[in-house]
Amino acid sequence: MHNTQSENFISSASKKKNYLFPLILIVSLFFFWGFIHNLDPILIKHLRSAFHLSHFQASLVDSSVFAAYFLLAIPAGMIIQKYGYKTGILTGLFFFAVGCFLFIPAANTISYPFFLGALFILSCGLAILETAANPYITILGEREKAAQRLNFAQSFNGLAASIAPIIGGIFILGEEPKSQEELSALSKTAKTAYIQAETSLVKGPYMILGLILLFVMLLFFFIKLPEVTESKEKSTKNFLQLLGVKNVGWGVLAQFFYVGAQIYVFSFLLVFAEDAVNMKGQEAKYYAGVAGVLFMVGRFAGTFFMKHISPQKLLGIYSVISIVLTIWIVIGSGISTLYALVLLTFFMSIMFPTIFALGIDGAGSETKPASSLLIMSIVGGAIIPPIASKITDISGNIHLSYIVPVICFIIVFLFSLRFRNKTSEQ
Q1: Among candidate residues 68, 167, 161, the one with its CA nearest the CA of residue 348
Q2: Which of 144, 161, 164, 212 lies 20 to 30 angstroms, CA to CA, from 35?
Q3: Distance CA 287, CA 293 (A)
Q4: Are 201 and 110 in contact (CB under 8 A)?
Q5: 229-260 pLDDT, tens per residue?
Q6: What predicted TM-score, i.e. pTM, was given to this entire model?
Q7: Is the pLDDT reported for residue 421 higher than 90?
Q8: How far apart are alpha carbons 126 and 140 in whole angstroms?
Q9: Are 103 and 67 in contact (CB under 8 A)?
Q10: Alpha-carbon distance 287 to 169, whole Å?
Q11: Top-confidence range, 61-75, 180-194, 412-426
Q12: How many CB atoms lie under 10 A from the CB of residue 404?
């Protein structure tokens, strides 16, 4: 008996040692997609200035990114179901890298639609990566700690959110863009040269990121990922039937609205600073950086709090605070609304991983396809920002557009109430 326990301990320690590097690589994926997503606010600000886009036209950046999640989540789930997590990760990294490299011809051709196409290809890779990595983290350990574990991994997504706006602001924003009046005074040749110079600023950061991703892809190709214990039963339900499994349907709904709110809050933070507070982009980028730091701290803090508070209860508390802060953004004015917008990111931080973990909890053999549906619901990021942006264009008041995130956080709160007076099945 004693020998058996010793052997089990040695085996467990050996397994942790052998799997340390692969797990570090898995967590690095959370950082990479967090970094690229948090370059989007810089990209929106930059392309809006370079091409003189309306709020709605600028929001098409988000639509290009998150439409890919809607279209690729189910194929990604099928790839993972048939060929495993490693193949899914390699496929995702490939499309991610290709999309980054496509920014070079997009800048050279001075084409906004080309930029949107590059973002779509890049985001196809992100959709596949997230479909693989999010459920993979939840099943690598004790089930009751899945939400806590996913929040920890997603904390590195938050770390990226704190770094990306600063780096993007330095290398992409450059000097303050010319006004429409200044552009009108330029000759056609000078105007084209100016736009070419502005769009070329994005080439360096995206090319470097693409090269890093190719390197990471090679590492994943040669390492052995940890095997996980999953139900041997195969899913017998179609994707519509999956909505009726446990918490999946409510999880999809809550994730759709949450992601839409998150993307609008982050993507238009610099635009809000400019429109609502008349703040220049070079100053506003630091507020975006602080928002990223708070998002990261919120993830780590959420991981700690979940040792003492159930994930569903913490989700409910944070969603109520988010509703209050967003209402102030709608009805308030001045710098305090920008502070509220930045502070909001702390309380949003735990929502995605917590909704995801609760949504697939107890799905059993349906976990992989259910994960695809939850990733598919990220399409909210393609739909919600254009709706909110259209409100700004019509009303001329960016504050009013935040009534849309208010509604989104109310739906997240209703999702948390579903778990009232009960806990996840053990």
Answers
A1: 161
A2: 144
A3: 10
A4: no
A5: 555 555 556 556 667 667 888 999 999 999 99
A6: 0.74
A7: no
A8: 21
A9: no
A10: 11
A11: 61-75
A12: 21
DSSP three-state, residue 49:
helix
- Are 189 and 173 in contact, with CB atoms under 8 Å apart? no
CA–CA distance, 86 with 205 (Å, rounded to integer): 27
> How many other β-carbons are positioned within 10 Å of the β-carbon of residue 77?
25
Instruction: Give the Cα separation of 292 and 295 in Å (integer).
Output: 5
- Sequential DSSP letters for 191-245: HHHHHHHHHHTTHHHHHHHHHHHHHHHHHHHHSPPPP----SPPP-S-HHHHTTS
Which string of DSSP letters, residue by residue, matches 6-47? HHHHHHHHHHHHHHHHHHHHHHHHHHHHHHHHTTHHHHHHHH
Encoded amino acid at 135, one letter: P
User: Which residue type, as a one-letter code, is found at position 127?
Assistant: A
Under 8 Å between Cβ of 166 and 291: no
Which residues, in sequence order, are CB contacts of 200 under 8 Å at separation 6+?
107, 108
Stretch 165-177: mean pLDDT: 71
Alpha carbon 129 to its chain's center: 12
* Tokens describing residue 351: 């929502």
Residue with tokens 């700004």, as numbered in its chain: 392
- Report the candidate in 42, 50, 33, 331 with the shortest Cα–Cα distance to residue 168: 42
Give me the helices (H) in 110-202, please: 112-138, 146-168, 180-184, 188-200
Tokens of 288: 């975006």
* Closest C-alpha among 343, 325, 327, 310 to residue 416: 310
